[in-house]
Amino acid sequence: MASKKSRHITESNVDTWISSLGFSFPRNQAEEKLFDKLYNDFNHELSGKEIDPLKLIKQCEEEEKESFDYHVDNNWKMAARNYGELPKHIIDKMKKNHGDKTT
Fold this sequence. Notes:
Elements: H1 14-20, H2 29-38, H3 53-67, H4 88-97
């Protein structure tokens, strides 16, 4: 990344720039050095103590539970191969639902 040609973003070096600019983690020392060079005078206002990872994980788990749909849908369809060991009343109901009038 030291040459003038590599200062321009192209299809062949876009992944390197993404990592070097901080949009992704640096994958090697060259990308890490460029990141450090680009952000050496950046005023970091956060110390890292403001972030509580356990609180974030708990919040994500709660959001997952809220988004999960516990509603049981009564429109389930059933498939069986050669009816297996299904009881006769279930087999009759399946045939009725599928329009089989041979029962």
